[in-house]
Specification:
104 residues; mainly alpha
């Protein structure tokens, strides 16, 4: 019993020292109602459709482009390639074929 009383006095004196050092500081005690904790893991997932919608929104916002404009741009490039590159390759192929026919 005396030892328990001595421990209490020791604790009380330490507590008083801490209390004098912590003047103006709030002490908050938090008690849990249960020993178990539920962990919830969240992750951001973006589908392909969501990604396309986001990309289209950004393009529309910053450049004034729409998906139709991008498609039309590709069509113009394809048309330009068809008109400029394909005739040149066809001419080259005809020239090579003529040269091969002229060889004995």
């Amino acid at each position: 019993m005396r030892k328990a009383r001595a421990d209490e006095d020791s604790f009380s004196s330490h507590f008083d020292i801490c209390r004098s050092e912590l003047r103006g500081v709030a002490i908050v005690n938090i008690y849990m109602t249960s020993k178990y904790v539920t962990r919830i893991k969240t992750s951001l997932r973006v589908t392909l459709v969501g990604q396309l919608a986001s990309l289209g929104g950004v393009m529309g916002l910053f450049t004034g482009m729409s998906l139709l404009s991008v498609f039309e741009l590709f069509m113009w490039f394809a048309r330009a390639l068809k008109e400029r590159i394909l005739p040149a390759t066809r001419k080259r192929q005809k020239k090579v074929a003529q040269e091969e026919q002229q060889k004995p």
